[in-house]
Amino acid sequence: MTPPTQSAETCSLCPRLCRPACPVASGSGREAAVPSLIAATLVEWGRGRLPVERALEAATLCVDCGACQSHCHLDRPLPELLRKVRREIVVFVEPEALQPIEGEGAMIVIEADERPFAAALSRRLKRPVRRWPTTDRLGVGAVEHADWEKHAEKLRLHKGAGADLVIADGGVATALSAAGIPFRWLQEVVPELPSGVASCCAPGGTTTVACCGAAGPLMAHHPEDSVRVGEFWLRRTESRQVSDARCRAHLQACGGKVRDALDVLLEGE
Amino acid sequence: MSLLPADVRTSDLPLDLTAAARDLWPGGTLDFWQGRPAPEPARVFWPKSEAEVHAVLKAASESQIPVTTYGMGSGVCGGARGREGAWVLDTKAMDAIGPLDSDRRTVEAQAGVNGQHLEDWLNARGFTLGHSPSSIWCSTVGGWAAARSAGQFSSRYGVFEDMVLGLGAVSPSRGAFSVGEGGDSPDDWMELLLGSEGTLAVITKVKMRVWPLPRERVLRGYRFPDVASAIRAMRGLMQGELWPAVVRLYDPVDTRIGGRTKTKENPEEEHRAFYREWLAAVDGMPSIRRRLLALPLALPGLVNNLFGSMASGCLLVVGWEGEPEVVKELYDVGHALLCKEGEDLGTGPGERWFHSRHAVSFKLMPIFERGGFADTMEVACRWSDVEALYDAVRAALGKTAVVMAHMSHVYPEGASIYFSFAGRGDPAVYDRTWKAALEACLSVGATVTHHHGVGSLKAAAASEEVGPAVAGWRSLKKELDPASVMNAGRLFVDVPHREIAPPELRPDDGMARAPLESTLSERAGWVQEGHEPMWPWESWPAPPRWLRLPWQTGWIEVAGRAGGLGCVLGRGPRSAAGPDLRGWLARRAGNQGTASFAVVPTEGAWMGAIKVADPWKVGWELIRKDLRPSSLYVKEGELRVGFRGPAARALAKIASAMVGGLVEIPWAPAPLASGPLEACDWKDKDIVALTLSGPVRRKEPEPARRKRTKESV
Predict the structure, then answer these.
(1) Is B321 domain-assigned?
(2) Counting CB atoms within 10 angstroms of each CB, which of A162, A209, B65, B295 has the fewest?
(3) CA-to-CA distance for B156 and B130, rounded, in angstroms?
(4) Contact check, Cβ <8 Å, B138/A17
């Protein structure tokens, strides 16, 4: 495998300018989580100087919120690179077949952690819902997988055939957005979900979802850092440093744990 | 075998060790890019409290393990770079902000708070710190104090040390202690901790002065025919007490490369930004990109000459901010002064700078990527040496690097020059470039650093500059860090010292020199006719920074003998060459020593008086309005306020309107109380001075205070 790290080079030389925008760097306190240093690790891995485990460790210090690229005056696509690297590395470390999409119906739930969102949703909506299972190992699952592009194409086709996609995780939502795949938000499908819990998943709120630390590969691979990031952003919320109202509402309701929002759906069953 | 401190978050994961091995020293970046690994520490700690900091330092001292304090690693001199087997004390888990005292205008923050996060927090509450270094996105409050940071608005708000009112710190031997306002340790330790770069103690929290968000900001560009005429204009602004917030002069090469000037009359005739076009051209031809870049970097002399010959004129960006009526008057007077030799370019250049003011560092990466190195050097000196310093350092750098410069920190007593340079990415060339530049700087008698600090890169040069006064730092280090584990080998190193005599003062310097123990009237005898001391302290030293107004300077240069050799400290305004050891040298030198101090012309000075019920409180309102009177005191219940410089009458008019009519009286500034002083409340009948936080009175000698307490009991 050729590590796809060439586009990390500029970031690896950057004087860490996107640091304050990165929720993981800010919240975890780990220098290794600063996007420039993640990029530096990937560059060294690409040069054959570091083992793949180090690259995996670095590339998963990320909630996939895209804030680093938004902050960057050079518009370096580091989030996209990290997604690509994570997909490559996961396969490299432990080849694993992506599960097929199960069942019939016009909706698909991308389901992480083996939590039965699809079944819950199906009962709630009284209609068939398809299920695309992923694993804890993969964190946000499908979108982190090496075969994601192929499946993304399938998803696009599903959409073309009139299927709706229902998402089950903020990180997945971000990735779906990035891949240009239309999807519907959990709250749109289950409007009675408490707004303080699910409103964070409203369109345009992807960075606010991800910045709390509970989204994406961070929670799967670095659970302690995930909690630190959530706590940090909650403090910033309380001290009026988070200006986005949706984000404030979400953080105050969930305390930085997006997955709690999804538990609400299960508890309702 | 070291004993790990219990319950402190720590990591020895290779990922964390590698990350903590490198700061932003460009030499380290070059090493990284070329595949030379940085020395890795053995462990990283993230203490959350002073007790945890002490546990780490105590364990390290007992095991003789070196400790490097690491904030966000934004230092460019290698002060926080890795050391084999060392422990890294990362301050980022100490990230609390507050409380904010909006009446006294102070805020506290723990050392690990990110600069931009602090500024966001203050802005949300209607305040600003006024500190805007280009590293604000990637540096910490603790790092600002430890390395004497300076921001882009320093000519109005001061450098970071001017904002500091108190510090919390932890040392291996003393544990947690505090200095400054309300501190439990000697006052003069404040000056020794600022700039100590982790060699004495870990700074854990900082109490700072804050300002209301400015209600008005004016930024404007001016084109000057050459550096000399622009320097005259900048000096005029500062010695005229016009207190601009922004003063940025780009030398002709920087002006040309940056493509910054555009006249009001011909807005389309902007110089093309060579830098951007060059990189774009290189990127357009990937097969030869490295060679294309290598060529100019390999022939820096030729390129410097080429750019020099193409360059015409230089850009000066000047700005004011604050209360609208004050800004208007200062701008009107400043604009007229600038237009004497400069051409008005309108608001465009200033606004462009303002909106991209933190983005300059994005330009550095492409140079490394293409096989070169890019670095910066900031030096400072008195006004009469600025041109000589510019020529000497530029010539030294220009032998091996393409060089340009700007000046963005100016004071009544001198200025800093900031050189940006790029060369061939060969470590030998890199080292040679720095060695030549530092030698050139010292040969002019300037300070080798204004705000980047010392680290390991400038340790030898700073040690040479400070000379035998390094003993003052060693003495405190022995007390606070007896095992010498704190960032050893950084900041100061053993170098041979030589005899240094204070330089002759010239009229442009705006300074006079007098014996250290001279009285104010004796000092006045050393001042040229038509001038007076800018801040007439009764005696030296001036009160500590938390008991005076931030723009009031004390001594500038202190000269005296130490270790049998002549020694001069304060060779450039706001030097960041380690702790401020002028107080130590002054105590050592006694009346054999001398100090220089700022002087200003009295022509045009205006003073007025008014009888009011609460004169000190009324005077305080003027200061809080940021009028910056040159003299303010109360005599026989009467408030007296004076202004000097070309804006004196305009400012006096504002002051008069505010207080209800000042009656003009002859100019008669009063001596400024030197101390010992202490903060007091408004009801106190013995107020002698004001700070931005409130009134100050003379501190009674200890025995007298005890006696009175006994009597009252």
Answers:
(1) yes
(2) A162
(3) 8
(4) yes
Residue B697 in domain: yes
Give residue A135's pLDDT band: very low, low, confident or very high (50, 70, 90). low
Indicate left, alpha or beta for B241 from its phi (over 0: left) and psi (-120 to 50: alpha): left
Which residues of B324-400 form beta strands (DSSP E)? 343-346, 372-382
Q: Please, which residues have CB within 8 angstroms of residue B100's CB and are 6 or more apart in sequence?
A: B106, B107, B122, B125, B127, B210
Structure tokens at A149: 């592009």
**By C-alpha distance, which of B486, B576, B493 is closest to B69?**
B486
Chain A residues interacting with chain B (CB cutoff of 8 angstroms): 9-10, 12-20, 26, 29-32, 34, 37, 40-41, 47, 49, 54, 57-58, 72-74, 232, 236, 239-241
Give how far A210 is from chain B: nearest CA, Å. 19
Look at A10 and B365 and tell me if their CB atoms are within 8 Å: yes
B171: three-class secondary structure by DSSP:
strand
Q: Supply the range of the domain harboring residue B615.
A: 606-712
All residues at 6 or more sequence positions from B136 whose CB lies less than 8 Å from its CB, including other chains: B115, B116, B119, B151, B358
Chain B nearest CA to A56, separation (Å): 11
| Range in A100-104, B281-285, B509-513, B694-698 the model is least confident about | B281-285
Interchain proximity B369–A10, CB inside 8 Å: yes
How far apart CA B239 and CA B414 sit, in angstroms, is 10
For chain B, the first-to-last Cα distance in angstroms comes to: 57
What residues of chain B lie within 8 A of the CB of A24, using their CB? none
Chain A interface mutation, best of B49, B138, B376, highest count of A Cβ atoms under 10 Å: B138
Distances (CA, A) of B481 to A101, B62, B175: 64, 11, 10
Phi, psi of B598 (to 5 degrees): -70, 135
B72: its two tokens: 């966000």
Do residue B114 and residue A57 have CB atoms under 8 angstroms apart?
no
Of B388, B410, B444, which residue sits at a domain end?
A: B444
Domain annotation covers residue B455? no
What's this model's pTM, rounded to 2 decimal places? 0.87
Collapse the DSSP code of A128 into the 3-class scheme (helix H, G, I; strand E, B; otherwise coil) and give the result: coil
* Stretch A72-101: mean pLDDT: 77
Task: Spell out the residues 6+ positions from residue B226 whose beta carbon is closer than 8 angstroms to its own.
Answer: B252, B313, B314
Q: Domain ends where: B424, B444, B464?
A: B444
CATH number of domain containing B359: 3.40.462.40
Q: Do B124 and A74 touch (CB under 8 A)?
A: no
> Nearest Cβ partner of B29 from A13, A32, A41?
A13
Across all residues in chain B, what is the average pLDDT? 91
Q: Are B166 and B183 in contact (CB under 8 A)?
A: yes
Q: What angle do CA B654, B537, B233 make, to 5 degrees?
A: 55
B116 in contact with A, Cβ within 8 Å: yes
State both tokens at A243: 């200006």
Q: pLDDT digits over B226-257, tens only?
A: 999 999 999 999 999 999 999 999 988 888 77
CB A6 within 8 A of CB A40: no
Q: Which two tokens stand for residue B680?
A: 């007091």
Contacts of A37 in chain B (CB under 8 A): 19
Domain count, chain B: 2
Residues A14, B365: C-beta atoms closer than 8 Å: yes
Contact B208, B168 (CB under 8 A): no
- CB atoms under 10 Å from CB of A83, counted, come to 25
Give the ipTM of the model, two decimals please: 0.91
Distance from CA of B37 to the nearest CA of A (A): 10
C-alpha to C-alpha distance for B386 and B380, rounded to whole angstroms: 8
Cβ separation A9–B35 shorter than 8 A? no
Kindly state whether residue B188 falls inside one of the protein's structural domains. Answer: no
